[in-house]
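Box S2. Input/output pair 1.
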Amino acid sequence: MTAIMKKAASAVMALALAIAFAPAVVWMGTVPQAQAAQQEASEELVTVTGTENYDEARKILDIVNKERTALGLDALELDVELTETAMQRAAELSVLYSHTRPDGSDCFTAFPTGFTARGENIAIGYSSAADVMEGWFYNEREMYEAGERDYNKVGHYLNIINPDFKSIGVGCFTQGISYWQQTLSGAEATVDTTTGTKEASHKIGIKYDICGKDQAFNKNENLTGKTLDVGDTFEMDYDVTNDRWHYNYVTLDPRSATWTSSDVKVCVVDDKGVVTARGQGKATVTATLPSGKSLSHEWTVTDEPTQVMYRLYNPNSGEHFYTASEFERDATIAAGWNDEGIGWTAPKKSGTPVYRLYNPNLPGEHHYTMSAGERDALVELGWTFESKDYNEDGAAWYSDDQERVPLYREYNPNEFANNHNYTTDKGEHDSLLGLGWKDEGLAWYGVK
């Protein structure tokens, strides 16, 4: 699972639709010229890259106009400049989910000069135009029809049906999850005919007294204890938490920062944040933003023999299976198991063997343990000591004696068989415990 996929999963799971919208805002004047230059005073200027979806923008336009037509109002037209504004504002929502821009200025400073009677609707996390429009106005329409006119309660709907509006821009910007924005105006439209999707980068000004202080490398994973072997590469992400939507963070375009290594003999880093391990030792990789704010991480590069451990899942039995053998991995996938990638990296040799056992009475069930006592007890119960002849000490693989990366062991008391799970992911571990699994402590350790 990629970093972006993980981010998307965590953000969507945390989403609460009741708070997925900020109140709508409207302004009937023109854009103040003095405010338009406030971005220059920002403490930081970063770049955020993602996907702009113009097809979804047009679907939103269709739904808006269907509603307006039903009420006898003129249809809105998609305007070129307002759509550029909407895409910019949607990208800004990835940094700060608010009608206030990340540089501290009002949202209307993003509007093109001279556009009058302005409104903004924003949303986060919805996967389609239909979903976001349902959240934007279907419930509000019922309240409006019952006589409600408070902008804090039905503001999105009031913006959508405002008779003073003639043009609209719609932003749909996706990086892991989608950010949505409507820019509405009373100005006549210069019709936008753009369709499809495109990768786009947006410059975003940040004032740290407003947002953006919570920064870290690779928020989707814990780098503590992670090591690299000579020849390994690792992509470092510069992540910033969204101050008004703490479930989510945005990954800055790596070219927002200057990347350096304290010792290029140990590892080097390119302008995309990709670290390449060159030699044994320790080196600190630093990413510095234009303001001078920076993040650093010390890498340990080893030159020890290791082996990757593959993790597979049987969707029929619920068992997870672990092996260092590519041949066994491929054969298991061919038999219908799901490939879940690399579970961890193990040392090729250590003083702590991990044993593998098989239950012939329940085909497919395996068990793994560092405990010779547990191994022998299972053999007494009829289990097969499968790894007995793999190595002279009976190890299927080895635990890291330096105890760098823990693998957690969980037990499902509600299942008779295939009821153990092993993972390096603390989030997965905690999630299973929350579902009623039992914490059986640490199973063994990996190198990374």
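Box S3. Input/output pair 2.
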Amino acid sequence: MQENKTNSSGNKPANQNVQNTKNSVKPQQKKPNPNRQNRKRKSAKNQASVLEGNEKWQKDMAFAIEANHKIHKERLEKFNLINNKTNAKVRITPLGGLGEIGGNITVIETDTTAIVVDVGMSFPTDDMHGVDILIPDFTYLRQIKKKIKAIVITHAHEDHIGAVAYLFKEMQFPIYATPLPLGMLSNKFEEHGLKQYRKLFRPVQKRKVYQIGDIKVEWMHITHSIIDASSLAITTEAGTIIHTGDFKIDHTPIDGYVTDLNRFAEYGEKGVSCLLSDSTNSHKEGITRSESTVGKTFDYIFSKSKGRVIMSTFSSNIHRVYQAISYGLKYGRKVCVIGRSMERNLFTAIDLGYIDLDKSIFIDPHEVNKHNDKEVLIVTTGSQGETMAALYRMATDEHRHIKIKPSDQIIISAKAIPGNEGSVSKVLNFLIKSGANVAYQDFSEIHVSGHAAQE
């Protein structure tokens, strides 16, 4: 039996007591210091502010804060500048392009003056057999014909100028526009036998205000997928209307002419009564990439191509065509332009000085086969699958001079317009069956939109 050892006082050994003490005694907690808590309260909530007082700098601080609040309110609430006491009225009547793609035409009308903003065409749907184009209904223009002082054009896309010639066959008015739209309209007038009406052309300068009846109009530069696009500042006695036209904010455009945001800001400072805005890509989040980003994709594709390169895009997208030609020249290729509208628009832009290209770089379609395939770039129409366009006829082996080869590199640098998806798919199928390498949506930057996204 084990014996319990105790000391003379009857307790257990001291070393065991030390062991128990370590296990049972809790460390002492520090008592709260009431003075420190008081100091915290004084340094936070209850401390007197040194920013308020009667010294000069304190009074200046208070004045600056109040003044800045007022400035923010004034700059953000420009509607206060609008004269609501005037009895003047302005009527805005969209005759096309609202809730649809294409056919843009809008009437801006006061009591004595009316101007027509754009006169565009649109494309038929698949069930409109035998119909080539759609033009707006001109019935309202007939009713107010005596009030119409002018047609004003924002830019040269077909959905903004494509129906002008058809209108002029019935009624004629002065046309105010920048030089490129007028140059393209000149071609159309010649085609439609309307050359005598070119005397009604009124070339405009941007940043200059033009008086048309009792309406003032200024053209402000905007970036889009065509050269020389404009927004309009339309000023009437009833107030100012900003008509954006088609636009995106491109900070690195090919020609270096960025959007004239300064003019927009100046009108904003004066107060704007109504904004009519392009909304094509308003459902898309983020930003629309710059036109210059397409060049990198072209460079990559051209560097890898061993045969002919055939590039198709919208005939009016002169900067896209210019980029393709520039990279074709970089890799030692001659350029063949096929398609009446493509050739006409490109050489109009060259003649007006919008792009700088030596015409000696171009060859005719019948000369293509005289050159080695790797020395040829063909720029053509047909990116929307139009059955009469050059690309479609090449794909179906119906073109007189160009037959698709398996060594060809096809680039379709465009996106199908809503309603044209079936036609584009059809021409793609023909091209792929021919054995050619087709780049359509393989690269995210083979095409960029000309319309602004949400940001």
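Caption for Box S3: The CA atoms of residues 58 and 389 lie 75 Å apart. The first strand starts at residue 91 and ends at 96.
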